[in-house]
Amino acid sequence: MGPPPLSDDLSEIVFFDVETTVPTRPGQGFAILEFGAILVCPRKLTELRNYSTLVRPADLSLITPLSERCNGINAEAVSSAPTFADIASAVYDLLHGRIWAGHNIIRFDCVRVKDAFAAINQTPPEPKGYIDSLVLLTQKFGRRAGNMKMATLATYFGLGQQTHRSLDDVRMNLEVLKYCATVLFLESSLPDIFTENSWVSPNAVTRSRSNGKSRSEGGLLNMNKDSVLVSSPETADKNHPILSLATSSTNVDVPNVADSFSFRELQDEINRESVRADVAMNEKSIQNSPDSAASFSVLQTSSSSIVVLEPEKISISSLDASLVPSYRGSQRIELLHEGFAFQLHSSGLKVRFGISTKFVDSAGRPRLNFVVDPSPSLCNVLEACDNVARKLSAESGSGSDWRPVVIRKEGFYNYPTIRLHLPTAVCEEIAIYATEIYQKETSGSVQRLLFSKFDAEELGAMFKPGTFVDAVFSLDPYDYHQNAGIKLVAKKLIIH
Predict the structure, then answer these.
(1) Lowest-confidence range among 126-140, 304-318, 407-421?
(2) What is the mean pLDDT of residues 4-24?
(3) Which of the chain's termini has less CB crowding within 10 Å, N or C?
(4) Phi, psi (deg, nearest 5) at residue 73
């Protein structure tokens, strides 16, 4: 079908999705096989127009059996379809200047669209704002439905099976957002009742050094207000749950939609400070010889499929490393387990050294990190990840010095340690912790800790040596100023 007739109302939200080939060898990129989008009225949440088309890649051999299994699109189906160059003007008119929405679009779909325009030497469209439902539902809806795959969320709400076809997926995306927003709206109306009946778990607790005590602040209502993606007080009358999921990428005023924090600004700030922190910390360590049997592939599925695994559930032989596009157009290394991006969940980590404030960022804020004693199984997994990532780093041409993720001091080889980082960022002049922090009471109940201000001293009092923590953390390879390695970034911490 042809492109939809466009209106001059660029406050419409465009939900879009691309289906692509799956790379099967080093250096091979993605090729778009299908583009689908719907224009949605942000006030009534109704579909105004839709556009969908198969896309013929320049090289049909990129459509491998693995690629067909992912989305069902074979070479015969696209043999007579238009090329991306044929539809580029329609895609540009549809996307440019509008609010972009989709599941994991920041990491995947946006990059694919940008690359496709670059391949035909045309200027890519630019968004007015983003609504990335993977990021924002993780923050606001939590993992109550399980992992944050679109298929899992749809099953949770009884919306049927995901087809992995562009137009079906974007319509399902909108329905999932409607259902999640309704649940959040109901919970915010009676937080005490829904919290008591385990609709919201755990309860939120706000801490402030001004009173030195924990203070219950009414469950999810305050958790949303004080968490990473926080809406400004001036927009309180606009906080319909579906609208509060939007993040603006620019300073352009988007009525009723993009009034909350910019996730892209937050992510860029976190990434920028993450690599600098590793370079600043001069850790003297013993280089481990790489495992000659370790191998890698560039099998890259949609990064929305991030799983959280315990070290004991990791198969060392299933660990791989892949080169993927970064936010700034370069490539970075992503670690995979059985072809999927993953994070680690490790319980009972003993704090060896508490919060370090030795190094500061460009704004004068301490770069927060602390050192824990890893279990033998965690050490095995991390050192295996080190091996595959270091091998790919060398094969991709990097000459940087590799810093082992497991720290083994000379003379203390049997007492390894690892460093967990707590990323921070400033959004609209407000400093925030980008790690979810919880406290486990002796009764066994777990409460979310919310902080009214950035205070490294207050945080340090909670991570004293000998304290035990449970941690969910990502493994983020970096290569910066001739130093490379894997940075362990805490996503969630439970303090015992």
Answers:
(1) 407-421
(2) 79
(3) N
(4) -95, 120
How do beta strands 424-427 and 468-480 pair?
A: unpaired
Show which residues are catalytic. Answer: 164
Rg of the chain (C-alpha set): 23
The SS3 call for residue 471 is strand
Q: How confident is the model at residue 76 (pLDDT cuts 50, 70, 90)?
A: very high
With residues binned 3-state (H G I as helix, E B as strand, rest as coil), the percentages for the chain, rounded to 5, are 30, 30, 40
Residue 422 corresponds to which amino acid?
L
Q: What is the pLDDT of residue 414?
A: 67
- Distance in angstroms (rounded) separating the CA atoms of residues 284 and 134: 38
pLDDT surpassing 90 at residue 135 = no
Angstrom distance (rounded) from CA 469 to CA 439: 9
Q: Is the pLDDT of residue 96 over 90?
A: yes
Q: Which residues contact 341 (CB under 8 A, 6 or more apart)?
A: 303, 305, 306, 307, 334, 335
Q: Residues 12-40: what's their mean pLDDT?
A: 91
What percent of the chain is modeled with pLDDT above 70?
Answer: 70
Nearest Cα to Cα of residue 243 among 264, 224, 218: 224
Rounded distance, CA 403 to CA 418, Å?
A: 12
Task: Return the DSSP state at 417.
Answer: B
Of 35, 41, 33, 34, which Cα lies nearest the Cα of 12?
Answer: 41
pLDDT value at residue 5:
53
Alpha-carbon distance values, 457 to 81, 449, 465, 490 (Å):
60, 15, 14, 18
- Which residue is it, tokens 């895609």? 91
CA–CA gap between residue 471 and residue 344 (Å, rounded): 8
**Which has the closest alpha carbon to 173: 160, 183, 191?**
160
51/39 Cα distance (integer angstroms): 9
| DSSP 3-state of 225 | helix
DSSP letters along 85-116, please? HHHHHHHHHHHTTSEEEESSIIIIIHHHHHHH
CA contacts within 13 A on the Cβ side of 60 = 12
Q: Which two tokens stand for residue 359?
A: 């190094």
Which uninterrupted H or E stretch holds 53?
strand 47-54
| The token pair that represents 479 in the structure block | 């290569």
Nearest Cα residue to 174 out of 47, 71, 51, 5: 47
pLDDT of amino acid 453: 67
Overall pTM > 0.70: no
Count the Cβ atoms, other than its own, within 10 Å of residue 335.
Answer: 24
Q: Which of 240, 237, 195, 203 is CA-nearest to residue 43?
A: 240
Q: How far is CA 135 from CA 199, 247, 272, 306, 331, in A?
A: 21, 10, 19, 12, 21
Token digits for 239?
């906080």
Angle at 75 between CA 72 and CA 78, to 5 degrees: 90
